[in-house]
């Protein structure tokens, strides 16, 4: 495969201007964005993306999950396309770059190829995956999951938001339900550019993260039941304090994750306390433990130890404890050939880089099941994401998009 010349770069000013223009749609209250999936704002962002793609000469495809596919033709009608993209939806208090950089970085590849009149053997398709965030309709990465055969379309359509509105109905309402069968497309490869959403690259002064693996995830819902009672009149020896039981279990969660450092992590991200009154001893708590690791055996060990240690604590305190696995997915090992294309691109361009494991879930993690896949990461300030204060530099965005351009175009094969 012919690699792009070393001096080829994307137009960093145009990419940055596009990011800022998209950020005007669904502005947040603190400088970020609230463009949740299948809202009117999501529809407006999609329309702007489609407009830009059509101006760049692409044809737009739309499947029954609302996934968008902007295609630039290749010279070989038999060659499978190289796909690139991410997502345009955001958290309710999201940043301007999470997902969006990957979509608009893909569009910038098309624009740059047009500027330079470069043709590729394989078509290149820029993708916007629907509902990556999962904040309105759980779970995350919903539409890419249907595409990869992880969920059925009917099940996805039945997902409800907090107001009881169904995914399928809202997709139809905003006018972005296509006719194309989901998952019918075949890919030569898929690449996704994303901000790191963690502090490693910035702390080490690296321009690029070459993503080799995606962490697996396990969500376990834990319910501890004691007895709610008056905080003032119940003697200490006679209390069955579910809140205290939770505190001791959470110490074990931290201890378990540390025992598999540096790559494993664990925390409780959702906690409900009952009756949640300032003068009542908690009689029941429900919380979700999130364990992640790039190794399935480590995830399984952490899950098992949570159950064993949690049961010991409950027995010692006269409490009842229940465990229910409510979600998760296996670790991902990205395609070695695609990963090497990203690594070569970073080296060709002179960007400092390191191999990295993605701690967050991404659409690429599902697509890796049906096509050779790799990811490019760039730093973000203080590792902050899923926050309106999320920030990156223009140079970081350009570096990530440059590497994405070279990896994608090398894989799509320049026609001399």
Automatic annotation (TrEMBL):
One of its GO terms (molecular function) is hydrolase activity, acting on carbon-nitrogen (but not peptide) bonds, in linear amidines. Keywords: Hydrolase, Metal-binding, Zinc. Belongs to the peptidase M20 family. It comes from Ruegeria marisrubri. Residues 215-306 form the Peptidase M20 dimerisation domain. Its cofactor is Zn(2+). Zn(2+) 1 binds at residues 87, 98, 194. InterPro entries: Amidase_Cbmase (IPR010158), Bact_exopeptidase_dim_dom (IPR036264), Peptidase_M20 (IPR002933), Peptidase_M20_dimer (IPR011650). It holds the Pfam family Peptidase_M20. This is Zn-dependent hydrolase. Binds 2 Zn(2+) ions per subunit. It comes from the Bacteria. The keyword Protein transport does not apply.
């Amino acid at each position: 495969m012919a690699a792009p010349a070393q001096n080829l770069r994307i137009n960093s000013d145009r990419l940055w201007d596009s990011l800022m223009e998209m950020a005007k749609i669904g502005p947040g209250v603190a400088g970020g964005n609230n463009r949740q999936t299948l809202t009117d704002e999501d529809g407006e962002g999609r329309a702007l993306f489609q407009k830009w793609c059509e101006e760049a000469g692409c044809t737009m495809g739309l499947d029954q999950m609302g996934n968008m596919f902007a295609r630039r033709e290749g010279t070989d009608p038999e060659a499978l396309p190289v796909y690139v993209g991410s997502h345009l939806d955001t958290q309710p208090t999201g940043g301007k770059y999470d997902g969006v950089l990957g979509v608009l970085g893909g569009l910038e590849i098309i624009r740059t190829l047009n500027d330079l009149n470069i043709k590729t053997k394989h078509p290149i398709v820029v993708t916007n995956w629907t509902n990556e965030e999962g904040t309105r309709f759980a779970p995350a990465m919903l539409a890419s999951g249907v595409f990869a055969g992880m969920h059925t379309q009917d099940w996805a359509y039945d997902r409800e938001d907090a107001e009881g509105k169904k995914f399928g109905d809202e997709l139809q309402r905003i006018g972005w339900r296509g006719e194309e069968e989901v998952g019918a497309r075949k890919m030569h490869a898929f690449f996704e550019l994303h901000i790191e959403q963690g502090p490693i690259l910035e702390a080490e002064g690296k321009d690029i993260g070459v993503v080799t693996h995606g962490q697996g995830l396990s969500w376990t819902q834990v319910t501890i039941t004691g007895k709610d009672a008056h905080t003032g009149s119940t003697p200490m020896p006679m209390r069955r304090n579910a809140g205290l039981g939770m505190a001791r279990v959470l110490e074990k969660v931290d201890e378990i994750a540390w025992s598999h450092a540096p790559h494993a992590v664990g925390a409780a991200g959702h906690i409900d306390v009952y009756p949640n009154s300032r003068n009542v001893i908690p009689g029941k708590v429900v919380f979700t433990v999130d364990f992640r690791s790039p190794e399935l055996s480590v995830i399984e060990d952490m899950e098992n130890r949570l159950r064993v240690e949690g049961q010991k604590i409950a027995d010692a305190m006269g409490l009842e404890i229940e465990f229910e696995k409510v979600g998760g997915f296996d670790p991902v090992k990205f395609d070695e050939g695609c990963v090497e294309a990203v690594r070569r691109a970073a080296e060709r361009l002179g960007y400092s880089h390191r191999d990295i494991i993605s701690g967050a879930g991404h659409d690429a993690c599902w697509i890796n099941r049906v096509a050779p896949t790799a990811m490019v990461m760039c730093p973000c300030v203080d590792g902050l994401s899923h926050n309106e204060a999320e920030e990156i530099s223009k140079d970081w965005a350009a570096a990530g998009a440059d590497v994405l351009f070279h990896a994608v175009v090398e894989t799509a094969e320049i026609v001399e």
